[in-house]
Amino acid sequence: MKVMVRHGATALLVIFFLISLYYAGKAYTGLSTFFLAKEEAIADRVDWKVWEGSWGRYYLEGSYRFKADSKEFSGQTVLREPVFLNKQSAEVWIEKLRKIPQAVFYDRSSPDRSTLQRKIPMKEIFSASLLLIAIAYLVLLRKKAVA
Question: Which residues cross the membrane (predicted)?
Answer without folding.
Answer: 7-25, 125-141
